[in-house]
Amino acid sequence: MASELKNLSVFSTENLPDISEKHFAILVAEWNSEVTNALFNGAYQTLVNYGANEEFIHVRTVPGSYELSFGAALAAQASHIDAVICLGCVIQGETKHNDYINHAVAQGLTNVSIQYNKPVIFGVLTPNNQQQALDRAGGVHGNKGDEAAITAIKMLGVSF
Ligand SMILES: Nc1c(NC[C@H](O)[C@H](O)[C@H](O)CO)[nH]c(=O)[nH]c1=O
Ligand SMILES: CC(=O)[C@@H](O)COP(=O)(O)O
């Protein structure tokens, strides 16, 4: 399985842009808060470790991952926000509800990013069970929050 070979917290840090003046929005879904709080801690610390000003990290919560798209739109349309990081965890349930949430959020965040011309990062775990989630929120497979933060940083360095 791909994850077995990958630690989400191991990434190249070459040629990262200066983010000391950049404003980041972090949106955190409340569902599965044990997991999403761990994702947030990883994302926040990664931003700080690579030079973000803590006063320029703007954190908001939304009820569930489905609401991340609207929350991201609110953040992205704010002129002072440079990048949006969205964190959630949608654990497969008994029905197809998780599929609908996951597809809606993935497409929704993509749409927001393109509409507002800003990086909007998909930091949403879509595990089959709680253990898979914990493994990717500071466990054996690292922390997708770290990955989401470094992705935001790298995207701020992409220009033409
Ligand atoms: N089951 C999970 C949810 N469900 C809630 C939805 O995200 C949404 O808030 C609701 O459908 C109302 O619009 N959310 C998660 O983030 N994770 C889940 O496992
Ligand atoms: C997606 C979820 O985990 C939550 O909405 C419960 O899903 P289900 O009703 O399919 O068990």
From TrEMBL:
<dbReference type="InterPro" id="IPR034964">
    <property type="entry name" value="LS"/>
</dbReference>
<dbReference type="InterPro" id="IPR002180">
    <property type="entry name" value="LS/RS"/>
</dbReference>
<dbReference type="GO" id="GO:0000906">
    <property type="term" value="F:6,7-dimethyl-8-ribityllumazine synthase activity"/>
</dbReference>
<comment type="function">
    <text>Catalyzes the formation of 6,7-dimethyl-8-ribityllumazine by condensation of 5-amino-6-(D-ribitylamino)uracil with 3,4-dihydroxy-2-butanone 4-phosphate. This is the penultimate step in the biosynthesis of riboflavin.</text>
</comment>
<dbReference type="InterPro" id="IPR036467">
    <property type="entry name" value="LS/RS_sf"/>
</dbReference>
<comment type="similarity">
    <text>Belongs to the DMRL synthase family.</text>
</comment>
<keyword id="KW-0808">Transferase</keyword>
<dbReference type="Pfam" id="PF00885">
    <property type="entry name" value="DMRL_synthase"/>
</dbReference>
<feature type="binding site">
    <location>
        <begin position="89"/>
        <end position="91"/>
    </location>
    <ligand>
        <name>5-amino-6-(D-ribitylamino)uracil</name>
    </ligand>
</feature>
<dbReference type="GO" id="GO:0009349">
    <property type="term" value="C:riboflavin synthase complex"/>
</dbReference>
<feature type="binding site">
    <location>
        <position position="31"/>
    </location>
    <ligand>
        <name>5-amino-6-(D-ribitylamino)uracil</name>
    </ligand>
</feature>
<feature type="binding site">
    <location>
        <begin position="94"/>
        <end position="95"/>
    </location>
    <ligand>
        <name>(2S)-2-hydroxy-3-oxobutyl phosphate</name>
    </ligand>
</feature>
<keyword id="KW-0686">Riboflavin biosynthesis</keyword>
<feature type="binding site">
    <location>
        <position position="136"/>
    </location>
    <ligand>
        <name>(2S)-2-hydroxy-3-oxobutyl phosphate</name>
    </ligand>
</feature>
<comment type="pathway">
    <text>Cofactor biosynthesis; riboflavin biosynthesis; riboflavin from 2-hydroxy-3-oxobutyl phosphate and 5-amino-6-(D-ribitylamino)uracil: step 1/2.</text>
</comment>
<protein>
    <recommendedName>
        <fullName>6,7-dimethyl-8-ribityllumazine synthase</fullName>
        <ecNumber>2.5.1.78</ecNumber>
    </recommendedName>
</protein>
<dbReference type="GO" id="GO:0005829">
    <property type="term" value="C:cytosol"/>
</dbReference>
<feature type="active site" description="Proton donor">
    <location>
        <position position="97"/>
    </location>
</feature>
<dbReference type="GO" id="GO:0009231">
    <property type="term" value="P:riboflavin biosynthetic process"/>
</dbReference>
<feature type="binding site">
    <location>
        <position position="122"/>
    </location>
    <ligand>
        <name>5-amino-6-(D-ribitylamino)uracil</name>
    </ligand>
</feature>
<feature type="binding site">
    <location>
        <begin position="65"/>
        <end position="67"/>
    </location>
    <ligand>
        <name>5-amino-6-(D-ribitylamino)uracil</name>
    </ligand>
</feature>
